[in-house]
Amino acid sequence: MKKNIRNSVLIILVTLFSSIGYSQININKLANKIKSELSSKKNENSSLLSTEEVVKGLKEALNIGVKKGVEKASASGGFLKNDLIRIPFPKEAKNVRDKAMQMGLDTIVEKFEATLNEAAEEACKTATPIFINAITNMSISDGFNILKGEDNAATIYLKNQTSRELYKLFIPEITKAIEKVKSTDYWNPLVTKYNQTTRLTGGGKVETDLNKYVTDRAIDGIFKLIAAQEKEIRKNPMQRTSDILKKVFSTLD
User: Fold this and answer.
1) 40, pLDDT greater than 50
2) 249 vs 253: CA distance, rounded Å
3) Which secondary-structure segment (H or E) carries 105?
4) Does residue 107 surpass a pLDDT of 80?
5) Which band of pLDDT confidence, cut at 50, 70 and 90, is reported for residue 11?
6) Angle at which helices 94-102 and 183-201 pack, to 10 degrees?
7) What is the DSSP string of 24-89?
8) Distance between CA atoms of residues 103 and 192, nearest Å
C-alpha cells in the first residue's frame, strides 16, 4: 500500500515538473518573441525618420540643454554649490594655496575660490546666445550614429565641434566677470606672498592665467549640464516636450 502511494506521488511530481518545464520553455519562447518584435519595431521606427528630422531633434535637445544648463549655472551659487561643476583653486597653484593656509590666510583663500565661481556664474548670464548660435551653425554629418550613441553623444559632438570658437567668444565675458567680482583682489596678494618665498627657496613662480582657467572650467561646466539634460531626454519620455523630440527619441525606448 505504501509502495503504491509512493509510486503515485512520484508520478504526480514527474508530471508536475514536466509541466513546469514545458511552461518555462513556452515562457522563454514568448519572451524572446517579444524582444524580437520590440527590436524590429525600433528599427522600423528609426527607418521612418529622415536625416533632417534626426538632426533637428538632436539640435533641439541641445538647445534645451543649453537653456536649462545656463539657467542653473548662472543662478546664485550655480557653480559654487554644485559639486558637479564647482571651480576649485587652480591645480597648478596648489603650492600657493597650501602656503597661504600655513600663513593663516584661510579666509582669503576661501573668498578667492568663491569669486572664481561667482565670475563663472556672472559670465554664464550671457552664455545662452553664444551656445545657441554655435548649435544652429553646427553641421551634423551622421545624426543616426549620434542618436544611437551614448547618453551624452550629442553633447560630446557639440563640444568637439564648437569648443574652440566658444572659448574665443566666452573669454571676454569671463574677463569682465572676473573684474566685476574682484577675483584678482584676492589672487594677487596670495601669489605675491608665495612668489616672494620662492626667491628664498628657489622654487618656480606661479603665473596662472585666471581668465583662461575660469573660461575653460565654465565652458566645461556648461557642457556637463547639457549632457545631464540630454540624458534626461533620452531616458525620460516626460522630458520630450515637442513633437520632434517625441518622434526622434521615442525610437530609443
Assistant:
1) no
2) 7
3) none
4) yes
5) low
6) 90
7) HHHHHHHHHHHHHHHHHHHHHHHHTS-HHHHHHHHHHHHHHHHHHHHHHHTSTTTTTT-TTT---S
8) 13
Alpha helices by DSSP H, listed for the chain, are 2-47, 51-73, 94-102, 106-124, 127-137, 143-147, 153-181, 183-201, 210-235, 243-249
pLDDT for the residue numbered 3: 47
Q: How far apart (Å, rounded) are the C-alpha atoms in residues 27 and 50? A: 37
> What is residue 152's three-state secondary structure?
coil
* Helix orientation angle between 106-124 and 183-201, rounded to the nearest 10 degrees: 130
- Encode burial over 6-38: b for 16+ CB neighbours within 10 A, e otherwise: eeeeeeeeeeeeeeeeeeeeeeeeeeeeeeeee
Closest CA relative to residue 57, chosen from 166, 148, 134: 148
Per-residue confidence band for 7, with pLDDT thresholds at 50, 70 and 90: low
And the C-alpha cell for 62? 541641445
